[in-house]
Amino acid sequence: MPAKLFAIGNPLLDISVTEGAQQLLEQYKLKANDAILAGEEHQPIYEQVRTTLSPLYLAGGAGQNTARAASYVLPEGSVVYTGAVGNDNFAKTLREANEKEGVESAYQVVEGTSTGACCVLITGHDRSLCTNLAAAEKFTVDHLRSAEIKQKIEEASHFYIGGFFLTHGLESALEVAKHSASADKTLAFNLSAPFIPQFFKDQVDQLIPYADIVFGNESEAEAYAKSHGIADTSAKNIAQHIASLPKTNSGKDRIVVITQGAQETVVAIGTKSVTSYPVTPLAKDAIVDTNGAGDATAGGFVAAFVLGSPIPECVEVGHKLGAMCIQQNGPQLPYPKQKVL
């Protein structure tokens, strides 16, 4: 059976630490609840964590987390994911995680470069992400045009692009986006981190006209508002603004989903409606870490949408997966699978 959902992003191995994380935040001047691309000054952190602490190695990369979350809900063989990796053990770990969770890895393999890694510093209920893209940023549009991947794109009915991919892969993102719009398929896009709408505003603005669904959290929405000169930075106003922006495929309204952690999720549909959906609270001692929670929420929403569920049910499935994720170490969901739809 051809995959229904085609996702594209930066495949990364998460190197996650809790003990010693606060000291690393201070040493490398990182913020507790943020995501950045590693600069030269951050490069030593990966070796320092590996050799002096006891990290967990987990399959990560926001788009890949979302693909695996969607696969948790969808029938087996429904999800294919692409991005660039090296020819190394990190890539092997990612393939194994995807295979276990029913996602087909359609990677572009870049020889002579290592698979990307993300240092995840867990402090309390916050997570700070510091990413070295490595092979991930060497993805080329030629991979999408290869016979094998082109067929998977043709066969898919829904697409998902993570905002992190726009730091290097706009041409590839637009290739997928234009196909989706012209074939009247569905494209979901995630803002992913505040620095994406802040520093990659032009790339975001080029992609949003093709997006049928846009995800973000309150920090990302606020960063979008600031970079676009929007004075009212409330989740409702920003959701409405993005939902009503011009759309290439004007036959269907854009859906914008803004999550706010334990606070209500805001959903705007075109110019028609803005609705708030409460989040069922979790006991504080049930929360292990929040890494990947937003990815899981997006994955649940997209999966339910692929299955034709109404919007309130899509939100509910997203909330369920987000809650399940924060009760695990890193971007994982509990197995054996729990029925969520």
Write structural notes for this entry.
- The chain has 341 residues and is of the alpha/beta class.
- The chain has a single domain (5-12, 61-114, 134-325), classed as Ribokinase (UDP-N-acetylmuramoyl-L-alanine:D-glutamate ligase), CATH 3.40.1190.
- It is 37% helix and 23% strand.
- The protein has a nine-stranded mixed β-sheet with strand order 7-5-1-11-12-13-14-15-16. Strands 3-10-9-2-4 form a five-stranded mixed β-sheet.
- A hairpin with a 2-residue loop joins strand 14 and strand 15.
- The mean pLDDT is 96.
- It holds the Pfam family PfkB.
Question: Could you outline the blueprint of secondary structure elements for this entry?
Answer:
Layout: E1 5-8, E2 12-17, H1 21-27, E3 35-37, H2 44-52, E4 56-60, H3 62-73, E5 79-82, E6 84-85, H4 89-100, E7 103-105, E8 108-109, E9 116-123, E10 126-132, H5 141-145, H6 147-155, E11 158-162, H7 170-182, E12 186-190, H8 195-199, H9 201-207, E13 213-217, H10 218-227, H11 235-243, E14 255-260, E15 263-269, E16 273-277, H12 293-306, H13 311-325
Parallel strand pairs: 1-5, 1-11, 2-9, 3-10, 5-7, 6-8, 11-12, 12-13, 13-14
Antiparallel strand pairs: 2-4, 9-10, 14-15, 15-16
Helix pairs in contact: 3-12, 12-13
